[in-house]
Amino acid sequence: MIEHMSSIEPATALIAALAALDTHGTDAGMIDEITALERLKSAICARQARVTDAFAASQRATLVKAGSNTRDARRSVCAQVGLARRDSPHKGGRHVGLAATLVHEMPGVLAALERGDTSEWRVTLIARETAHLSPEQRAEIDAAIAGQLAGWGDGRTEREARAWAHRLDPHGAADRARKAEGDRRVSIRPAPDCMTYLTALLPVKQGVAVYGELHRRAMTGAVDPAEHRSKGQIMADTLIDRVLTPGQGEPVAPAVEVHLVMTDRTLLDTDDEPAQVGGVRAGARASGPGPGQGRRDDQGVGTAGLHRRHDRRAGRHRRPQARFPTGRPDVPHRPRPVLPHPVLRRADPAHRPRPCRQQGR
């Protein structure tokens, strides 16, 4: 019956059918329906990608044939897709680009989306992390991860796609990491109830140092019985005082320890397996793969000043104490700061210790 309908009639009929459904039933039946609807959402997104790519190709050809130049035709397509999806023309361009990537370069990921094994956001993450690669490299990643997407969440999907991109293009990843410092900036946007979000995009070393110092000040103040502010409030007030009244205290350059995990081959510059930033001392948190070359060449962190220990279970050299110079000639390295609280660590989920197999026996 659907074969004799126009392309829009099945979607309209499905919308009406879903609206007519009631919510009476058993708990097990309702949770099964939620699962089925989630898979249906993914299948609809896959269909939308295919239709978007077909429309973009057809409409561009029509407009160019009518006398429009390629740029105007592309802008018209993006605006029409954005309008159809109730988005801006800019987001319409993103939808067009994602559709073209899935249809022409990553058919395996698109098939997983059609099966309901993943979501539109997760395939967007894959496309974003591999945007700089060639079609051949994208096809290799597509073949490697398409069958595993059903068991991955948002974070795992992003980390795996980024790690594969770093493996296939390690030098490009290191170059982008170095050039990214040129994008450092401070921005502001409104928040509810007369508040604002002040955001700083910084190189990892400086960002970790700033956050670590604010965190230490907050935890030091939290032990004062007369202190009634929360940790977050103390951190915010300290930031305000440091920026608006810098004369009240001397600038502080705190010591920072980055928990960096890389294979011995990457450490010795014989392989390009991505490194893992598993956590940062002094309360700062970071995780995820990074280019091995970029980790080796990070400013202020050299292999000569690292305290290494070998993790025999993972076959890796752990570098948990990368200490940054203090700038004082008489003290080449600052001692580990004495914190009034346990050191916060956040391991990368991909490298969590395996659960004991004896549990439950």
Structure description:
Helix 8 (154-168) crosses helix 9 (170-179). Mean pLDDT is 79; it is low at 279-287, 299-334, 337-353 and 356-361. The chain has 361 residues and is an alpha+beta fold. The chain folds into 3 domains: 2-168, no CATH class; 185-248; 258-351, no CATH class. The chain has helices spanning 9-20, 27-65, 70-84, 89-104, 107-115, 120-129, 135-145, 154-168, 170-179, 204-222, 231-244, 264-267, 292-296; strands spanning 185-191, 195-201, 258-263, 275-280, 289-290, 306-311, 316-322, 325-328, 331-333.
Explain the layout of strands and helices.
Layout: H1 9-20, H2 27-65, H3 70-84, H4 89-104, H5 107-115, H6 120-129, H7 135-145, H8 154-168, H9 170-179, E1 185-191, E2 195-201, H10 204-222, H11 231-244, E3 258-263, H12 264-267, E4 275-280, E5 289-290, H13 292-296, E6 306-311, E7 316-322, E8 325-328, E9 331-333
Antiparallel strand pairs: 1-2, 3-4, 3-7, 4-5, 6-7, 8-9
